[in-house]
Design goal:
This protein is about 0% helix and about 45% strand. The strands form two sheets. Strands 3-6-7-8-9-11-12-15 form an eight-stranded antiparallel β-barrel. The chain has a two-stranded antiparallel sheet with strand order 1-2. The two termini are about 15 Å apart. It has no helices and 15 strands.
Amino acid sequence: MKIRNTQVTLPRSATARRAGVLPIAALLITGALTGCESSSDGAFDEFVGTWKVEPVTSQFALTCTFLTRPLQFPLWDVLEMGEGVLSDLAETSGACPFFYDVVQKTATVPNPDPYTGKAPICRLDQSTDMVTAFLEFQPMNWKFNLLQPQKGQPPRAQMIGTAVVPLIVVDPATGAEIPDPEGPCLYDVRADLTKIAKK
């Protein structure tokens, strides 16, 4: 999965505490961005492969209380999907992969995560020379849907879901992780995908 870069300047409350205060004016965010063993015998071949994100029709909306409008915050240019070990499928590249279980033509991020036994999360490092920080994507209803095949056309799919996304900063004095007091952002994704390579 190739991560695209996005920048957003967050509010004063998103900055790290130093000795119990919040002295930094703003934080510059730069988008970097598992039971039993699964056995498919080729059952998931329709999902497995390399999928290209269609940039014109796809939407990646990050909505925060401090933004006047949703920010386009794409996580992928290309998504690579492989067969999983403790899940049916796994994203096999990129800094922020999720795992998926398949029911018919839909793959869904399982909760709990089969490797950690906890709710699935993805942390994107957003640290600068002034502060240690990250965005934590907590997916909800995150699905990879195969679309109806069209004669003479490559396979197509959609990634659809939402995520709660707190900005978390690290107190340099104590190492404590401090969520932004203004509350988390919300992330809505609808990625239109075209399969460009098989396994």
